Amino acid sequence: MTAKQFIVARDNLQQSRFVDVAIPETRELLTDSLLIKVDRFAFTANNITYAMLGDQLKYWSLFPAPNGFGNIPVWGFGDVIASRHPDIPNGERLFGYFPMATHLIIEAADVSKRGLRDAAAHRQGVSPVYNAYTRVGGDAAFAGRAGDYQALLRPLFMLSFLVDDFLAENAFFGARSVMLSSASSKTAFGLAHLLHTQRKPIRVIGLTSRANADYVRSLGCYDDVVAYDEVSSLATDHPAAYVDMAGNGELRAHLHRHFGDRLVYSGRVGLTHQDATDDNAPLPGAKPTWFFAPDQIRKRAREWGPGGIDTRFGAAWANLTPMLERWINLADGRGEAAVQQIYLDTLNGRVKPDQAHMLSLAE
Ligand SMILES: NC(=O)c1ccc[n+]([C@@H]2O[C@H](COP(=O)([O-])OP(=O)(O)OC[C@H]3O[C@@H](n4cnc5c(N)ncnc54)[C@H](OP(=O)(O)O)[C@@H]3O)[C@@H](O)[C@H]2O)c1
């Protein structure tokens, strides 16, 4: 039996191909191992960032690929088709981190009613969140369209939730407005939605490319929308914060010089503008720093106690989901050609912001 994998050249993400790899028969699986058929997964700019940071943040070690190539991790659903674990039956449906592939073998550990984790040695160098799988069979919140939204947005919205919480906890560092770059991205509009609905009178300013400005305005969660080539027009008569999804060094430098000491927070979150050059010259205003989600999770887990994050995140998620049908058009892509096309379109910035893709290589 073979599995199909979609792999990309680590040093040139424009190069990609499919490979077939042998997978063992059920009787050959090691004790506690599960053979999972990957059913469907979401693909957004965030997955491209995983590839860009594959070496640095060890994403490439999660799903081994032939030398020089990497298998990009994706969030999605898989079904157990062969189990050597006594508490996981065939047919169990799991939500979690998968390779862009038809199959995955994991070593199930810490199995509970809610989930399990992959204990494979090569996966232990990353944050535990990437090795956790949720048992979602029979859970309506993870079925059909609702499930697609979970795969597409839940991991992104967790970041939005944590940044909103971090900024509020720090009284916005004195800022009266928050600017978000790549405002059309799902991570940015999730954060904008939280700020807009919960943090008035903080103003939420979306920075985006000219082509995406109308879409960003239509969302209704930004007080102002400004194209990248117009940021010099931003009023600087108040302290402002910047949350950077684009990772564009030139834009960052421009904003720092424009606001000077009135830029009171500059947090880096993403790298959507992959071809942008980085400007590492010292900048006026707050020092740009990467926002590190696991730190905020650990802090809140301590302070809020068991279930504290889940309860609050669950409430925020419930408040977001009614917006999604209006904000996003879901499209299904199935098979090798579709997967490669959406990968290249996403890599090269050709996906319209209202489009969201669920993909599958399953036969
Ligand atoms: N640090 C973390 O833990 C964490 C967690 C979640 C997400 N993030 C990051 O947040 C960013 C947004 O992710 P997402 O999945 O929400 O994105 P998305 O919805 O797929 O974002 C699409 C938008 O990103 C910009 N973009 C995408 N590809 C581009 C390209 N090749 N060239 C120029 N612009 C491009 C465009 O926005 P504009 O025209 O508006 O610029 C586009 O409308 C990613 O970099 C992701 O890694 C980080």
Overall description:
The chain is of the alpha/beta class and 363 residues long. The protein folds into two domains: 2-142 and 329-360, Quinone Oxidoreductase, Chain A, domain 1 (Alpha-Beta Complex); 155-296, Rossmann fold, CATH 3.40.50.720. The two termini are 13 Å apart. The protein has helices at residues 45-52, 144-169, 186-198, 213-219, 249-259, 293-304, 308-327, 336-347; strands at 2-9, 12-22, 33-43, 69-70, 73-83, 93-99, 103-109, 115-118, 132-135, 177-180, 203-208, 224-227, 240-244, 263-268, 289-290, 329-334, 355-360. The chain has a six-stranded antiparallel β-barrel with strand order 3-5-6-9-8-7. A six-stranded parallel β-sheet has the order 12-11-10-13-14-15, sandwiched between helices. The mean pLDDT is 96. It is built from eight helices and 17 strands. It binds NADP nicotinamide-adenine-dinucleotide phosphate. NADP nicotinamide-adenine-dinucleotide phosphate binds at residues 44-46, 49, 156, 159, 182-187, 208-209, 212, 245-246, 269-274, 293, 348-349, 353.
**What fraction of the residues are assigned to beta strands by DSSP?**
25-35%
Label the structural class.
alpha/beta
Give me the count of strands: 17
What shape does the CA trace take? globular
Q: Tell me which oligomeric state these chains represent.
A: single chain
Give the averaged pLDDT, no decimals. 96
- The poorly predicted ranges are none
Strand order, largest beta sheet = 3-5-6-9-8-7
Task: Report the helical percentage.
Answer: 25-40%
CATH architecture of the largest domain: Alpha-Beta Complex
Radius of gyration over all CA atoms, rounded: 21 Å
User: Biggest sheet: strands, sense, closure?
Assistant: 6 strands, antiparallel, barrel
First CA to last CA: what distance?
13 Å
CATH superfamily of the largest domain: Medium-chain alcohol dehydrogenases, catalytic domain
CATH topology of the largest domain: Quinone Oxidoreductase, Chain A, domain 1
